[in-house]
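Section 4.2 – Deliverable D4.2 (structural model, holo form)

The reporting period included a commitment to supply a predicted holo structure for the target in complex with 6-O-phosphono-alpha-D-glucopyranose. Inputs used:
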Amino acid sequence: MSNIVLRHPKGSSAEIMLYGATIVSWKSPSERLFVSATAVRDGSKPVRGGIPVVFPCFGPPAHPEHAKLPQHGFARSSDWSWDNIIKEEGDYVSITLTLDPTPSIAAVYKRQFHLRFVVTLGEDDLSTELHVKNTSASTEYPPDFLEFQALFHNYVLAPANEVLVTPLQNLSYFDKTESTEEGKSSPKIEKRAGVDVRKFTDSVYENAPGSYEVTWPGGGVAIKTTNLKDVVVWNPAETGSKMGDMEKGGWEKFVCVEPGHVRGYERVAPGITWVGKQVISVVHNARRHQNRSAM
Ligand SMILES: O=P(O)(O)OC[C@H]1O[C@H](O)[C@H](O)[C@@H](O)[C@@H]1O
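Output (structure tokens):
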């Protein structure tokens, strides 16, 4: 499988696989992403770690147009194209990958689309942008809307027993660790000022603020988003031992903080492009201590 490595003159780097457009490493200056030591990297299944791209459905498909798709859609398990261009602009280097319908996608998904995935590396930040264009040629009314969900599945390298995610307090969320369908679909209100993942956690926060801090004693990252109204916090804890591609105890080394549009669907008319974006940056020590002592 082909990987592209972006190198920043100030020392940071990012490695992106064409398979799934998955970012499998971000160093600024040390590694910031978790990838399981037993992740499959030969393009036969999505990578367990890094930043997989979720499109056009999050979780098991619920939309009739997605019925034949696997969990989290096909973007993370398709071969993307790259134009061999690495752009350098100011203090940033970036690449753009694209994905169009292929015969194997068309066999399970009938919609016309064009995806662009832009990865931009700075000295201490990394941004990802997903551009989704509805390329349907239909001129009929009502418009031939493309309805989709999208999410960046960030595996943030962090000590799971100490990490806190903020600010999610008072948001409504869906707890997918509940055992019944009724439990999963009944919203709860987040009471914690800092959300921890010391036990199995799979929470979908709706209409979240769009800016988050993921911090622990000794480090942290901030995530700022555009057009991504929801955020998922996931850590499988011991249930991770059932995943064939999760290294032993791997769940102790990360928290997934996943900004996306996953409750309901984005609707994009023919010819229109939707853009969802996140910027992940290293939190500097002074700010981290301030935030934790305010808790
Ligand atoms: O195993 P995967 O298909 O990669 O999914 C891993 C996880 O992704 C998200 O965080 C979902 O909320 C979880 O329910 C799911 O278990």
